[in-house]
Amino acid sequence: MPNKSKFIPYSMNKNFLSTLAILPLATQAQQQWNVVYIMTDDHTSQMMSCYDKTHVSTPNLDRIARDGVRFVNSYVANSLSGPSRACMLTGKHSHKNGFTNNEHGIFDGSQQTMPKLLQKAGYTTAIIGKWHLVSTPTGFDHFEIIPGQGEYYNPTFITQDGKSHIEKGYLTNILTDKAIAWLDQQQKSGKPFALFLHEKACHRDWLPEIKYLREYEDVTFKLPDNFDDDYNGRQAAKDQEMNIASNTDMTLDYDIKMFDPAKPTRLTETYLNYIGRLDSRDRAIYDAFYDSLAIDFRSRNLSGRALKEFKYQRFMRDYAKVLKTFDDNIGRLLDYLDKSGLSENTLVVYTSDQGFYMGEHGWFDKRFMYQESFSTPLVMRMPTKYNKPVAKGDITEMVQNIDYAPTFLELAGAPIPNDIQGRSLLPLLEGQHPKDWRQSLYYHYYEYPAEHSVRRHYGVCTADGWKLIHFYPSPSENPTTAIDEWEMYDLNSDPREMNNLYGKPGTEKQLKRLQKELQKLQLQYDDPIEQQLKK
Ligand code: SGN
Ligand code: CA
């Protein structure tokens, strides 16, 4: 086993003091456990059966929770891919790591990051898969990334020499092959390691593996109870452009594969480019499958509510297929870790870059601080030979993606720099419940104006289930269309966030408390937004 030779339990070590003098700093205190961090794109807990059995079964993902822990209050700091990745890598909120949105940024790779700190502590690090931070990855001994959002079919990879090449196959399967090959090398090297395996699944436009095209076709997915939300009292929710019902938001070809050569959409070209990557044999199978559905669809001439429901079922089916291949691959990876013995000294983490709407509020996509996209799945399995008791079952403390960096650093026995804003989850993983654990979380989303038109907003959510959100005007915005609105929710009585309590009589005390908490967090995290808005 790697790492084991470095582990000298104090009780067994007669020459304890003299050993201390010769051991490298990071190993004096503890063994350096490996980390396998797996992150999907846009996978949400409504589609993970250990969180929610309504729609699908994900037996392999559930295995991690069964053998380890499930975080039931897990959230992101900014519900969007690039920003979420930057928060994870730095342990800092977006305004501190500088990557606030996908569209106008380039991640400053010269800043302190957790992978760099792990390297300093003697770890070998690698990232395989989606990067999405524009600049070249730093802090990794090895990287093989996909450009931008990447492609599902016969995908392009960018390697460390700056060159790109195409590989044959379905991206999710290829990523697991690459991960296993890299892990194999690390095991032989005997050095501690951290692998960041970043999937494209289950990102739009949900192109399934060819062998799973027919999967879920006999399933009618349950409609969320707020599928027909009228957004009453919530201006930002009214203004968004992520409606399943809208054929410009969710297109008939790119999104739900009902391609009609006579009726191109704004995304037809992108769609044809993606499926154009298939080999001719697979393309024929793909076309035969979706063309017959599309012919039937056109013959039915659906409109209005019936069309909305049809689109929802198509979206759910394709998303579930993409997820199925991913869940299979998690099984393959876990089997490898078990068989190779790496499970003994490796922490396995599974999460997503944010949650997603599966028809709730009538939506797809994310961005909002509402529960479905603010929360993210998070399950972890500690090394089976961990040298202290470990937690099992549910962890209920509020955690956020800025906490991963300090967690991995503590697990590596590396110092956690003071400017890291997250808090190590290791005590929770060891079954402790620190009395001073945070009672609220801060959130800030910046990408507006942009695709899906979700207004900029920040907010606070408390452990006792209250939320306050401020949707504010963006700097460049025309004042006549800008909004400056507050929303307040009691998640205990209104878990779907349908009833905006802001300004309602009888809620003054709660509002005061939440405003105070929000101010406290903005001060603590040093977010300058309030001063900027006053200017
Ligand atoms: C793409 C998608 C959007 C999605 C963003 C961000 N459009 O732009 O639907 O919200 O990515 O997603 S698409 O036409 O290119 O599919 S993120 O997860 O990467 O942040
Ligand atoms: Ca994402």
- Give the neighbour order of strands across the main sheet: 7-6-5-4-8-1-9-10-2-11
Secondary structure tally: strands: 16
Q: Compute the number of helices.
A: 16
C-alpha termini separation: 59 Å
Shape: globular
Hetero groups in this structure are: 2-deoxy-6-O-sulfo-2-(sulfoamino)-alpha-D-glucopyranose, calcium ion
Describe this protein's structure.
32% of the residues lie in helices and 14% in strands. The protein has helices at residues 16-22, 25-29, 59-67, 81-90, 94-97, 114-120, 171-189, 235-239, 268-275, 280-300, 304-340, 371-374, 404-411, 426-429, 508-524, 529-534, and strands spanning 34-40, 69-71, 74-75, 124-130, 142-146, 156-159, 164-166, 193-198, 346-352, 378-381, 393-395, 399-400, 440-445, 457-462, 466-471, 485-490. The protein is globular. The relative contact order is 0.17. The chain has 16 helices and 16 strands. With 535 residues, it is α/β, with parallel strands linked by helices. The protein has a 10-stranded mixed sheet, sandwiched between helices. Strands 13-14-15-16 form a 4-stranded antiparallel sheet, with helices on one face. Strand 14 and strand 15 form a beta hairpin. Mean pLDDT is 94; it is low at 1-29. The site of 2-deoxy-6-O-sulfo-2-(sulfoamino)-alpha-D-glucopyranose has 14 residues, from loops.
